[in-house]
Amino acid sequence: MGSRIPRKQFVLRSEFGKGTGQVGKNSQTPCLPASCQRGIEHNREVKEIHLNRNYETPIFEKYSLSIEQAADYFGIGQKKLRQIVADHEGADFILYNGNRVQIKRKKFESFLDKTSAI
Questions:
Q1: SS3 54
Q2: Which helix (H) or strand (E) holds 84?
Q3: Tens-digit pLDDT profile for residues 64-85
Q4: Could you tell me if 72 and 59 are in contact, meaning their C-beta atoms sit under 8 angstroms apart?
């Protein structure tokens, strides 16, 4: 089985305070200096903040867009975008993720700049 850390290396914070170096019984918290404890607590807070937020890359920073995202970004209907993809199969602005079509944002912008009508 796993190696066990001797109990005397742990401190019971509720009885002895943070990082005092005193050893308590039945404890599961390592005895650390107060500065280290503050760092650990800060890291836990930061981790909780990041876990609670739903981060999403802004659409203007993404390399490729789904048909739905591209329709919102470029102001072109989804049906029209699917038609453009079908008409320009193999174009450099098209990326397939399995059977899903992704549109390379910058290359599609260049394509639209060169095109007078869609």
A1: coil
A2: helix 78-87
A3: 999 999 999 999 999 999 999 9
A4: yes
Helix (H, G, I), strand (E, B) or coil at 103: strand
Listed in sequence order, the residues at least 6 apart from 36 whose beta carbon sits closer than 8 Å to its beta carbon are 19
Hey, CA dihedral for 38, 40, 44, 50, is it positive or negative?
Answer: positive
Strands 29-30 and 10-11: antiparallel
Residues 8, 20: Cα–Cα separation, whole Å: 14
For residue 12, what pLDDT band results from cuts at 50, 70 and 90? very low
Q: What is the residue type of 82?
A: R
Q: What is the pLDDT of residue 57?
A: 84
